[in-house]
Amino acid sequence: MLDKLRFILSIASRHLMGKKRQTALVVAGVAVGSMVMILTFGLAEGIIAEIENKIIDISPLITVKGERVRARQRLLLGSSPSSPNHYKIVSRIIPDEKKEVKPYTEVVSLVGSLPGIDAVSPFVATRGVLRYSTLSRPCFVKGVIPQREALIGKLRQNAVAGSLDELSYTKNGILLGDGLAKKIDVHYHDLVRFTGENGKAYNLTVVGTFASGFGAVDDNDAFVNLRLAQTINGLAENAVSAIGIHTASPAIVNRLASEISRLTGYKTETWEQANENLLSLFRRNNDITFFLVIFVFVVAGFGIANVLITIVLQKQRDIAVLKSMGVGTGTLEMTFLAEGIILGIAGAAIGCIAGHYLTSLISALPISYGPSAVVRGNHIVTVQKPAYYIVTTLFAVFVSAISGYAPAGRAARLKPVDVLRA
Fold it and tell me: What is the greatest pairwise CA distance in the chain?
């Protein structure tokens, strides 16, 4: 068996070395395909990883929403229970019912006692228009307890000017996203005017700005004290819009969300569910990119097939001599398949090495996404895993083997008598 393998490899290597220029071009084609695939893996997974990390850093992993799991019923019309034709008409929707968690202190206490819960932060969400001088901008305002909100994400660390702590002792304070502050040209300790959904205007003092690195948040979001947001939304002191929760690990989020919903009776939403549209958009784009990369390998496969067919045509007499000496059809087929696999392995090895260094170089370069990017940063995040290199190598070898199948069959079908007589 080993002798047969040595024979196959020796013939295959002689054939390939006899066509050095063509062999080098084909290996280069496979290498480029492998390099591009490694780079695509690194960039695609890097984008998803960066977005997920940003989301986890700035938002709750679980949100207890102000909606009941089972809608409360309201009796509209009904007959006496003793009536033989008893009927009851109910409505599951109560007009003008506010979506709120009430009393929120009990829910916070209950949720905070569960194992795996790191932090619990009640909040009130509202929308309105922020105005400074002649500039105005619609924004999303979140009323929070600063000390609790600091444990949910990295709001304290993300402060650019001022601080989250200043918000805790400034009743009419507001902490703005740095993009939002720039759009209305407002600075630290300026006085702004916020008009809420109730139509009332409130004079607020800018206690600082923050930069989360997430464009949609930095350009539109702001934070105020919980009691101020309750006043703007017309909520009682024991009511909030929702409750944010941070867990010890993202891996236990789904289990805890179901348990919290069962215990409290309120609907819950995980960070993945809340950002499903954004994440699915990038994942779909990544899938499209991978399909395009596959075509690079297809082109390389045609190159391999071309080289092997050329070898078959030019080595017909050699093949005929080998067959007349007793070399079997299967051995000849394996020889040309081995040539395709050798080209694939050589190209994949070079491409994987080049892809590793190129991916590392790109991640080290100081590249800015720009102010209009979904995720803002000063470099491109990439991810490199051993699985990427294994998949790329296997795919390259597979394409190479398929490309060598037709030439191998052609060589095996040659008749020694016809070739030698020609």
Answer: 108
Determine how many CB atoms are found less than 10 A away from the CB of residue 106: 12
pLDDT in the model for residue 125:
92
Q: 374: which 2 tokens?
A: 């979904």
- Spatial CB neighbours of 160, under 8 Å, sequence gap ≥ 6: 178, 208, 209, 210, 211
* CA-based nearest residue to 189, from 168, 177, 202, 175: 175
Q: Which helix (H) or strand (E) holds 76?
A: strand 74-78
Indicate the SS3 state at residue 150.
helix
**Cα–Cα dist 367/377, whole Å:** 8
The DSSP line for 308-329 is HHHHHHHTHHHHHHHHHTT--H
The per-residue pLDDT for 96 is 46
pLDDT per residue over 333-368, tens digit each? 777 778 778 888 888 899 999 999 999 998 888 776
DSSP letter, residue 377: -
Low-confidence ranges of the chain (pLDDT < 70): 1, 7, 15, 70-98, 307-309, 311-327, 329, 332, 368-376, 406-422
My answer on whether omega of the bond before 146 falls inside 30° of 0, hence cis, is: no
